[in-house]
From TrEMBL:
It comes from Paenibacillus albidus. This is Hydroxymethylpyrimidine/phosphomethylpyrimidine kinase. It catalyses: 4-amino-5-hydroxymethyl-2-methylpyrimidine + ATP = 4-amino-2-methyl-5-(phosphooxymethyl)pyrimidine + ADP + H(+); 4-amino-2-methyl-5-(phosphooxymethyl)pyrimidine + ATP = 4-amino-2-methyl-5-(diphosphooxymethyl)pyrimidine + ADP. GO terms for molecular function: ATP binding; hydroxymethylpyrimidine kinase activity; phosphomethylpyrimidine kinase activity. Keywords: ATP-binding, Kinase, Nucleotide-binding, Thiamine biosynthesis, Transferase. SUPFAM superfamilies: Ribokinase-like. Pfam families: Phos_pyr_kin (PF08543).
């Protein structure tokens, strides 16, 4: 049996709901062997981020070399990268090892507002990493910072997606979780030719810690299995919808999404997603 491998390059969330921990749980649920390169350690729980401890860029490079020389991943995702220096090292290693199935989740701030990316690193993200991305998955505030646009209408979302595509990302998923105005959550997928809208019911819950990480990890896992971007985006959307619906009421603040929910439902309906 072929073993599909996915790598997450991201920060550690001690509370286990976002970052590396969310990514590895998601890979595992989707039957993909998970590997990690940690960029920063955060002291974090459902109440917020209490500390951020970035790793030396050399430590990030060392982890990527260890993986690149022995365990070539079938897909790679990036999450919290924290600094321009780390972004440059990651971009260099992605090129060196020719990791073409790259999902860039341009993480900037945690839900409570704590910065997870230094302001001056945004330029490195657009200059060095987006041109290497197969897919980038910004939320609305991240898309505004990356493009400089103020995004309100659907037309402006399409314009932002066009700009991100022109920056080099072959596909763009503009996530709509942060849009306070719409009853449904609308994500926009753009491949450089057409716009596909993925709409789902907005779940009213405060247990949304780690939604973005879990979503991009599910996308990377499906790409690792050889799925097309469109199919991988659809599965990732179903995965996150189930994970938010069954969100976990643990801790005193924003609880994490439920990484078991999607596969539990499929098992209940008597088929394994990996048979499809
Ligand atoms: N309340 C909700 N109900 C249904 N789907 C949601 C909800 N909130 C987010 N999503 C979905 O979850 C995915 C992640 O979107 P979101 O905009 O929350 O990402 P994010 O802001 O990057 O997450 P994070 O804050 O964890 O970094 C998207 O597919 C989005 O449509
Ligand atoms: C480590 C980490 N990465 C990403 C996010 C964004 O949800 C977070 N809160 N923590």
């Amino acid at each position: 049996m072929k073993v599909f491998k996915a790598l997450t390059i991201a920060g550690s969330d001690s509370g286990g709901g976002a970052g590396i921990q969310a990514d590895l749980k998601t890979f595992q649920e989707l039957s993909v062997y998970g590997m990690s390169a940690i960029t920063a350690v955060t002291a974090q729980n459902t109440l917020g981020v209490q500390g951020v401890y970035p790793l030396d860029p050399e430590a990030v490079a060392g982890q990527l070399d260890a993986i690149g020389t022995d365990l070539p991943p079938d897909a790679v995702k990036t999450g919290m990268l924290f600094s321009g220096d780390i972004i440059r090292i990651v971009a260099e290693k992605v090129k060196q090892y020719e990791w073409s199935n790259l999902v860039v989740d341009p993480v900037m701030v945690a839900k409570g507002g704590s910065p997870l990316l230094q302001e001056e690193a945004v330029k490195s993200m657009t200059a060095h990493l987006l041109p290497l991305a197969l897919v980038t998955t910004p939320n609305l505030p991240e898309a505004e910072i990356l493009t400089g646009l103020h995004i309100q209408s659907l037309k402006e979302r399409e314009e932002a997606a066009r700009i991100l595509h022109a920056m080099g990302s072959r596909y763009v998923v503009l996530k709509g979780g942060h849009d306070p105005l719409t009853e449904n959550v609308v994500d926009l997928l753009y491949d450089g030719h057409e716009f596909i809208y993925l709409e789902s019911t907005r779940i009213k819950t405060r247990h949304t810690h780690g939604t973005g990480c879990t979503y991009s990890a599910a996308l990377a896992a499906e790409l690792a299995k050889g799925k097309s971007v469109t199919t991988a985006v659809e599965t990732a959307k179903a995965f996150i919808q189930a994970a938010i619906e069954d969100g976990l009421n643990i801790g005193g603040g924003h609880g994490p999404t439920n990484h078991f929910a999607y596969m539990n439902r499929l098992r209940r309906f008597g088929h394994d997603q990996n048979d499809q």
